[in-house]
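## retry 2 of 3
previous attempt timed out at serialization; input unchanged, resubmitting
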Amino acid sequence: MEAELIVRMLEKMEIIDVNQTIEEFESTTKDAERVQRETLKKILEENGSAEYLQNLGLNGSTDPESFKACVPLVTHKDLEPYIQRIADGDTSPILTGKAITTISLSSGTTQGKPKLVPFNDELMETTMQIYRTSFAFRNREFPVGNGKALQFIYSSKQFKTKGGLNAGTATTNVYRNSQFKEGMKGMQSQCCSPDEVIFGPDFHQSLYCHLLCGLIFREEIQLVFSTFAHSLVHAFRTFELVWEELCADIREGELSSRITVPSIRTAMSKILKPDPESADLIHKKCSGLSNWYGLIPELFPNAKYIYGIMTGSMEPYLKKLRHYARDVPLMSADYGSSEGWIGANVNPTLPPELATFAVLPNIGYFEFIPLRENVEDQVLGIEPKPVGLTEVKVGEEYEIVVTNVAGLYRYRLGDVVKIMGFHNSTPEMKFICRRNLMLTINIDKNTEKDLQLSVEEAAKVLAEEKQEVVDFTSHVDLSTDPGHYVIFWEISSEVHLHEEALQECCNCLDRSFLDAGYIGSRKVNAIGPLELRVLHKGTFQKILDHYLGLGAAVSQFKTPRCVSLANNTVLQILCNNVAKNYFSTAFR
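## retry succeeded, writing output
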């Protein structure tokens, strides 16, 4: 009876009022400083009994000044012992007043192993608030009808920690939460695939069925989504390989034998019926495409936009995604992390490369560490003091510090952002890079963005040979004297390119790092010649499979852009799959 009641409630649930949601956002951002003080007060009042805060001597104070005086800036490493106790079953108020019952796992692609992060209903509510806000602004510009969404979303298994808490990737915890499904219905963004596909135990089978469901409901698809641009490109690269099999399934109304999970087969049998007419049409459309250009609008003629996180380490996939999308707009999803959300994309018409995110001042308390140190601080080796949400300056770069509703206090996120402007009194920011993801040997400092720009420049040489970079990563090799940068490339074809072309790519990579410290060090041979290692096809798939084996979800996967010695397994996969290597001659 209770289940029936929930279903009825969901059916009656009102579609989100776009204008009201926008008005609420406008009101909240008008006086962001006041909202920030109120948000911090609420967080500290609700969690005042937590051991962590008690030990720091806040004594019930809830104002920002006392908070900053008593509570230190921390990294995940500082909080690890507390989170571990929670995961091991200690139900006393450790980081929060109310006991934490769920743990999120970060993707693990940055550090090589997943971090444990507290997750609770309050954090889920901030997630849905971000989703509602960005949907409202998106829907105002690109209204979606009452159709379906082709969502390449995957849930890895939840498991129990030693203390009996539910644990899973952050995306899994969101997708399995009842608020998510309710919210998606309110946003007219229901997934065209059944739950059995989303929660299936085998990613490859789930992906195949997502594609099949998309084709079955192709006329109804209003938008295409995945958490990351990488997953979207991966999905349509897979489509190129299996499209004829998908057509055969639709023609016969019979699911491919590659799908072996009984629950998925049962769910798919309810929606897959023989439809030779559709199969012929899809076959004709695919056969008529030139190198799969415009695949998405051909398959899904009513798709209004393609949506997912497309900034930062996802930017390299945009060229391929645009190839598939043709004139369907790409829209970058909101800005957050496993630790929680920060900002919503309220300017959906901007291309992903220019996407900015407006901070919601009522979902957490935010501080910003300036990256531009003054001369005095540099001499003394003092890090600049963090500034408040409304004190940031346009054009400056900062590292974000988060205090959230799930037990993180003055937590250094490790993300570098640039302030691009203000929406009312809340900043709009652009994601720049992860602060700790740097290629550095001595005085050189090259970020993930610098690496991306270098790869883009060198890929132009490859494009002249009708080839493209499928994916890339890097490593600082200090086993040589002097140390040198190693760039790993997987390229689109097994066909051997001219040696001269790849050698020129290697030289171009080396020349395209414009950091003065790098150029100076290369000229005097304090850093050795850059090395390009071309990988066998499928190497990055092996890396993805490695992370899936650790329990990561594809929806959360990000190719690590800089692989350290600590990330030994991934480094081994890369080194064991080198087809050819080249050393730069650029600075001879």
